[in-house]
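Quick one - inputs below.
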Amino acid sequence: MKSDLFLKKKLLVITGKGGVGKSTIAASLGLLAASQGRKTLIAEINTQGQMAGFFNKPPLKYSPSLLAPNLYGINIFPKKSFEEYVLLQIRFRKLYSLVFENRFVSYFIEATPGLAELMSIGKIYALIKDYDLVILDAPATGHGFSLLQVPSVVAGAVRVGPLKSESEKIESLLKDAEKTTLIAVSLPEEMPVNETCEMAQKTKSQLGLSIEAVIINQVFPEPMPPREIALFQRSKKQLESDPDLRPLATCMEAYLNRYFLQQDHIQTLVTTFGEKRCLKIPYQFNDQLKKGDVERISALLHSQLEAMD
Amino acid sequence: MNPILDKLLPRKKILITCGSGGVGKTTIAAALAVQAAMEGKKAIVLTIDPAKRLANSLGLDQLADEPQEIKADMFPQKPPGSLSAMMVDTKRTFDRVVIKYSHSPDASRTILNNRLYQYMSNMLAGSQEYMAMEKLYEIAHDYDYDLIVLDTPPTRHALDFIEAPKKMINIISDSILKWFLSPTLFASKAGINILRRGSEKILSVFDRLAGFKFLHELSEMLLLMSELLGGFQNRAQEVYKLLRQEDVGFLLVTTPQKTALEDAFFFYKKIQDEGLPFAGFIINRVHPNFLTSKDPYGNIKKKFPKELASIETPLLQTLDLFQKMNALDQRMIQNLKKETLLSRKGPQKIFYKEIPFFSSDIHDIRGLIDLNQWLANPVQ
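Output:
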């Protein structure tokens, strides 16, 4: 699959466990799509708006703002989406205030299972017509899943009315592989790898969606060619015997342990999803990722997406 | 065995580990419980996470919804105390809460069979957090563990967890629908009459949005749940008191990464504001410092064996990279210390323990015991 094809979709959903770097990947893919001339929107849901930090912009708000040429960002607050949706249906601001700015009703809204998720995904659905591509930086795995699941559940639970028809429309968008693509972000570590495999099974069996690509983040690069690694392993004892050289050996050994362990975990993902569907992003040895890092990751994703068939 | 817990967390009987996702909370919680068993205590770890690896490392296929004692032969040496583990199953705990607080078996059956309840007990905002509290209370009261370690659900919104019992009550007691379909129940409450005038319109709005059938099912469920309210309210009071006991300690687990630290600091402030007993920070996955001497690079250059010239550069580069990461981590940790000291309320002692970034995964109890040695490290 060529990257231009990949990005020809209408909706990219980026899923993954907390702390794996979903936002970084969403930002990088957004930059890539925008640079290919697609008007792109990155959507966060109910966050502190940190996405904008990658682009040196103030935190994202509920109305879309420009992050880079051709690239926009939005922070979706379910409560606001709910208000918007209801106003669309009843058309009277006064009636809305009477009903929904009431304390009792607020609790009701909180109590209604899945309503926040439905309103968030509904907002995404409404935004799609204004952009060539919407990239959803989904909440961490569990919540990301309920976000995708809620339209079909609601469509099943509610028997008639606008809520049902809206849910059905959203459901058919999510299940349309021509328009929607699911991307998982993972780390080459045991728990995230297991969760990614479980998530793939769950989305397939319960939602009929398959994960198009797995982006493996924070991969330790090979520190030196295999022949040199072998040479190091043969001479480790010699280096360790000198207190001045010992740190070199200890550090490289720790690095290699981690490197080989990572390779095993990557292999699990490769076996499950196929070599070509596993994209690798090297560990960024710095703390706060800046715009330059996102640009670099974007270029790395580009070349690897090109290699997909 | 070095009495680490008695020194670090004297007189604590309940430890609650908090933090954002992916920082190693579950592993730390398990390690603390293992340590307690090694120090002769009867310990239990409660987790929300269906962490298969944790179960496996304790010699179990899966964690069950009730305490399971870990076999002594899973330990490298027989522990003087004992260790149990369990996973809180939100749905099953919720079902049990319903049965416990219902007035009659018929009433609880009606709730349990309600289609929306079946769906809601998993999805209702905060239900996971509420059930964790419920389970903690139950274990604290019905059993005689010396130490309970609760691994909380990963949460970016720290308050969800602390406020869960309160929130759950609000949802059920104040829901408009209950008032709506059972006006006599709350007729005496002030302000209701003003509201009632709008009721016709409210009904029509909901009807247009969701359909009456759905509305009816939802209100039926909430009405049924309102019967449980008394039980819920009492329990919430008790949990509130329990969490503020002196023998409780909140621990924040974080990594030295900026976003994780920000979450941890936010949570720390909340814990202070709520008057909850805070014990300390455990900073996981800190890049270690490999260098000990003052001018290592000069000596390395001089002494590096000629025959290994082809690996000199990669070795130096890797060491350099880790030293930079270590310096960065240390700067972040210093910032955390400074900020927490500034916003500290009261004179309680806070500890900051660093656990290095291990070059292997933890697979068994021995690994958890090794991890604990870092809690004993007096250097920090």
